[in-house]
Prior knowledge:
Blueprint: E1 2-3, H1 9-12, E2 17-20, H2 34-45, E3 49-52, H3 58-67, E4 73-75, E5 80-85, E6 90-95, H4 99-119, E7 124-125, E8 136-139, H5 149-161, E9 165-168, E10 172-176, H6 182-192, H7 198-203, E11 205-209, H8 215-220, E12 224-226, E13 243-244, H9 249-271
Parallel strand pairs: 1-13, 2-3, 2-11, 11-12, 12-13
Antiparallel strand pairs: 4-5, 5-6, 7-8, 8-10, 9-10
Helix pairs in contact: 2-9
Amino acid sequence: MRPLCEFPLEDLLKIKFILTDIDDTLTTNGILPAKSYHALEKLHQAGFKLIPITGRPAGWCDHIARMWPVDAVIGENGAFYFVYEQSKRKVIRRYWKSKKQRTADRKRLEKIQKKILTTVKGSAVASDQAYRETDLAIDFCEDVKPLPESSVIQIMDVFHKDGAVAKMSSIHVNGWFGDYNKLKMTRILLEEYFQLNDVEIMENIVFTGDSPNDEPMFNYFKNSVGVRNIINYSEQVKQFPAWVTKKNSAEGFSELADILLSSKASHSLKTN
């Protein structure tokens, strides 16, 4: 990983879309600070397309799509995208699986939930589980006393043994059935809704994140940025982002926002 300050200006000026994780990227210690929200607002006003890509639930994503200064949101680690078309007062909801498939998956996940809570001491169902449509989130440090790494691995093993995918974020282990992830749904959103081609996707997008469940995005996008706390996962992550901020979490995202805004502003002054 190279320092974000070394990001070439010519590449910064090509960026039109900002894709970002939420937990511990936009937030710090579970809080969305005013600085992060203000950064989103300034970026949106400057003409950047903003897309949070998160493991958080559908209920939260509906709120984010409607009320945040963003252009779309991908939730539950790639299970769907939501786009709020304000002029039509309509939320477009695109799922990876049908409602019938999601209902069947929920029954299987409920069985896994019982196994995890029985076998992994101190684990708990995430407090946002009631608002999820496609996955099961197990809390290992958000609202419970932080569990050791061995317990987190044990949680993931239970998912895997029952044929589910399991990914670790900074706060939860999320499990689901299906071969989707953040990257696959991102590609669908960009191609299907925003009508981007492969060259535009590679040149005009920056992604920023902080944890192992962001790894497919780090691996795919050449303009990938990790907030400084990605270093905490040096043993779990195989594919690191190309660039890293000086600061952690929300401060790191604001650092990226400032560089994008200042480069765009300086270029505008030179061309006027």
